[in-house]
């Protein structure tokens, strides 16, 4: 589990974000490869051993492949992306901040600074970078305005994606396939409960932190 260092150095914050991006990408690759292998051995390999005189529902095999891959992905992401890790990403993103591109003609009368990597920019300030004008959106902003990966890191919504994947597993209406679905969903109901709980707790914690920061700024 990586650790978060609360520092005021813009360069160290960006280096920490780059490390966390690499770590997060590795975890997602692990989830993707493992889930695809699990679905391959569950849905496709058994079909090869079916006798030619037996009928195989190929459409259901494809659906089962998708369901198993989604189910395995949720379980693995629940293990590799626990609430502590998501909170670590949130704290790093809060220190990183983000920029929103604005139309220069709409802010021609507003003071615009030249963006420098050594400075921590406050919220609402306008800067020029790569011939474009950007507005600081976070409370603290050290991200590179033109770096799209920094913006994606700031708006990460891991828990919402997981809950959407779990919800998609509950939409089948074919009663004769409920046994397979029940076995898949049985391992996901507990994960869904914990994800929902973590999403509510983290959402309230972040909203309280944002409101407290806004009161300090005002």
- Low-pLDDT stretches are none
How would you classify the quaternary structure? single chain
Please describe the biggest sheet, giving its number of strands, its sense, and whether it closes into a barrel: 4 strands, mixed
The helix/strand class is alpha+beta
Count every beta strand, where a strand is a DSSP E run of 2 or more residues: 6
H/E element sequence: HHHEEEEEEHHH
On the 0 to 100 scale, the average pLDDT is 77
Order of strands across the main sheet:
1-5-4-2
Helix content: 55-70%
Number of domains: 1
Strand content: 5-15%
Number of helices: 6
Distance between the termini: 36 Å
Transmembrane segments: 31-49, 64-81, 151-169, 175-193
Subcellular location: Endoplasmic reticulum membrane
GO cellular component, one term: endoplasmic reticulum membrane
Family: Belongs to the TMEM39 family.
Question: How would you briefly describe this protein structure?
Answer:
This protein is of the alpha+beta class and 218 residues long. The chain is built from six helices and six strands, in the order αααββββββααα. It has helices at 10-48, 58-80, 83-96, 148-154, 158-168, 178-217, and strands spanning 99-102, 112-114, 121-122, 126-129, 132-136, 140-141.
């Amino acid at each position: 589990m990586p650790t978060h260092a609360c520092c005021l150095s813009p360069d160290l914050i960006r280096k920490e974000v780059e490390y966390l991006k690499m770590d997060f990408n590795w975890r997602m690759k692990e989830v993707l490869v493992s889930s695809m292998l699990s679905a391959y051995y569950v849905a496709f390999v058994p079909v090869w051993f079916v006798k030619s005189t037996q009928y195989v529902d190929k459409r259901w095999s494809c659906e089962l492949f998708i369901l198993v891959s989604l189910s395995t992905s949720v379980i693995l992401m629940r293990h590799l992306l626990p609430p502590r890790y998501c909170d670590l990403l949130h704290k790093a993103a809060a220190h990183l901040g983000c920029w929103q591109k604005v139309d220069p003609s709409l802010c021609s009368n507003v003071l615009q600074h030249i963006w420098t990597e050594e400075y921590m920019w406050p919220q609402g300030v306008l800067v020029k970078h790569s011939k474009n004008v950007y507005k600081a959106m976070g409370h603290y902003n050290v991200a590179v305005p033109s770096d799209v990966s920094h913006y994606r890191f700031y708006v990460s919504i891991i828990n919402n994606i997981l809950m959407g994947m779990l919800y998609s597993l509950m939409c089948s209406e074919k009663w004769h396939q409920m046994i397979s679905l029940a076995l898949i969903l049985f391992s996901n109901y507990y994960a869904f409960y914990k994800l929902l709980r973590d999403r509510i707790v983290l959402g309230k914690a972040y909203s309280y932190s944002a409101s407290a920061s806004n009161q300090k700024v005002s």
